[in-house]
Amino acid sequence: MRVLDVAAVTAWSAACVRSLDRLRPAINGINVYPVADSDTGSNLLHTLTGARDALAAALRDPAAEDGPSPSTGDAGSPQEGDASRSAGSPVTSASSDGGVSPFAGDTAGESVLPLAGETAGESVSPLAGDTAGESASPLAAETVVDRVSPVGGKSGPASVSPSSGEAALSSGPQADAPSGPDEEPSPSSGDAAILSALTPSAPTQAPPKPSAAVEVAAALAVLARGAVAAARGNSGVIISQVVRGIAEWAATGDELDGVGLAAALGHADKVATGAVSRPVAGTMLTVLHSVAAAVRGDTRSLAEVAETAAATPAAALEQTPRQLPALAKAGVVDAGGRGLVAVLDALAGVISGKTTAPEHELEAAVAAPVAESAPYAWEVMYLLDGVDEAQLPVLRKELSGFGDSVTVAGDGSGSHAVHVHCADIGAAIEAGLDLGRPRRIRVEPLLTPTPIEPGGGLDRSVVAVVRGGGLAELLRAEGVAVLAVPDGETPGVEDMIGLFNEAAGRHVTVLPGGTALSAAADTAAGHPMSGDRDVVVIPCASPVQVLAALAVHDGDRRVNDDVVAMAEAAAATRRGELRIAGEESLTWVGRAQSGDVIGLVDDEVVLIEPAPASATNLVAAAMGVLNRMLTLGGELVTVLAGADAPPGVAAELAEQVRLEHPEVELTSYASGQAEAVLLMGVE
User: Could you give the CA distance from residue 646 to residue 640 in angstroms, rounded to a whole number?
Assistant: First the structure.
């Protein structure tokens, strides 16, 4: 197969459903993040079954695209006997006698339903790849348009964007369109053009057959719309955006060959990530990022790109327990990521012609615990129509203020799937009512995350909130879940609750590396979305106090004793810092000019070193600060170099401390934070 065609898209949708139906129990069994409610496999299956059914219905009768609903029940598995309406196998090319092969589920002797605009006596139009000479009724109405413009992309003269998901396939009015009491609903301008092209009229000449690229784009658009409409849970919304991203790229008109598939997967990564309010490392999105990175700029054949796109996420999935502590302590990989691997395996199988999906020893290393507690919050989902795209950030921010796992994902036609975990159902729905028209509202209870006991048998976790990428990586290397906050920003409630949920265990100790971060942690600690977790915030005014607290953390102690020990260590750590004056100011030790180095001890200015802020001046100022702190004693000095620290300044300072205070041990790290050039702690 050189390029992806409609038959391959149809076969892919069916293969996804078959694979997820088989894997559903295993994926549900490893579902521990963000909530251990054992439904990720069911949600993925329900979402892609809806996508498959929407495409199958559109291929048989474009007017019925909005009609069918997914064939799954609450359990998420497809109904038996659906072969007659599901695209279980690819659409084959014309047979040797000139007839058209049936769709999946049709027997060899059955007739094929005509497309919209064809009467029962007319011949069936071929799909891409059928031989010439057959009567053609195009999937896309190219009698009135020259090409299909990408969703949100450029549109030339006489172009129609398939933003409704079925612009090239549907002949009916837009679903849910308002109409007057005595009027029939009027179609949109794009639909009107398609209706005009597909409605029988005086036969003049056969309309031109659309290109294969247009047909594939139209099929993928319908597939994406079906996925968004049927999406359940975080994983379902994300996988729907993966399909939508591929569909959007296909709508540019380029072929989905090897180069095209690589580019489409990259766009899918951007679309899916953009729908999630707070992406978390070690989840489904991390696995998707690995795929986009692996095929970026790939110019190989379609089969080779698809093979890489299937092999890469399997390797990335194995790393998820190392990125997300909740997974590591449960001994499982990410459930959503496992589902994404199955979807990409199915794509590679269709392209290569393999009928058996590869086996991955990734389903479950340890059986997931069963949630036993009563509901503490709710999963609220609905489709939102009529919302201004510019208002979506406002909606995400409002939902994040009282819940977490927020996603707002579009289907390319103006409808958006809204998802949030929250304690206030009414507030979640009202947020949508303020901006548009919610429909298909679904509310399900969430269960309190069941505590997962780490190796020592103690039910606890320690998490940190800091600024600076270098410091965050340092803490993650120690097995601590970290929220890295950009400079100048304050974490919201969703950010903090997401951090709590990354941790395993009922008891969570939070180490915030600053006064503002401590206040944000305190606000989230008592939030209803924290469930029945016991969240304790140890106030720290500086990252050096976070490191001091972690240094005395002992998982073998009783929880209360360990918290007290960490709090005492943080409070006993004296802190100093060097900053560069941004403007002239008056301090307790004199006037500072712009560019001067200001030394502080416990937030009080103690010295001013005249500009410039060279390595020599910084070392001199740092020694002045340390000498003041060491007059009260101290055995360990910790230095964190900021983003603006000159190269080698930490090494020069270490040498100077060794000469002046040989009894003191100094440890230095690169923090990456921008507030101070150097942060210093004395224990």
Answer: 13
| 3-state DSSP helix/strand/coil % of the chain, to nearest 5 | 40, 15, 45
pTM value?
0.52
**Element (H or E) spanning 210, and its range?**
none
Q: How far apart (Å, rounded) are the C-alpha atoms in residues 540 and 544?
A: 9
Burial of 359 per CB tally in 10 Å (0-12, 13-18, 19+): exposed
DSSP H or E stretch at residue 295:
helix 284-295
Bridge partners (DSSP) of residue 507 are: 460, 534
Output DSSP code: residue 148.
Answer: B
Please identify which residue in the block is written with the tokens 């210093």: 680
The DSSP symbol for 114 reads: P
pLDDT tens per residue, range 156-186: 333 333 333 333 333 333 333 333 333 333 3
Q: Are residues 302 and 8 in contact, defined by beta-carbon separation less than 8 angstroms? A: no
Can you give the pLDDT at residue 51?
Answer: 94
The token pair at 545 is 């106090």
| Residue 339 DSSP code | H
Per-residue burial over 282-311, b if 16 or more Cβ lie within 10 Å, else e, is: bbbbbbbbbbbebbeebebbbbbbbebbbb
**CA 398 distance to own-chain centroid:** 19
Q: Is residue 431 classed as helix, strand or coil in its secondary structure?
A: helix
Q: Is 375 left (phi over 0), alpha (psi -120 to 50) or beta?
A: beta
Q: How far apart are CA 591 and CA 586, in angstroms?
A: 4
Inter-residue contact 625 to 601 (CB < 8 Å)? yes
DSSP 89: S
SS3 427: helix
Distance CA 220, CA 246 (A): 8
Q: Hey, CA dihedral for 611, 616, 622, 623, is it positive or negative?
A: negative
Of 259, 264, 187, 257, the C-alpha closest to 220 is 264
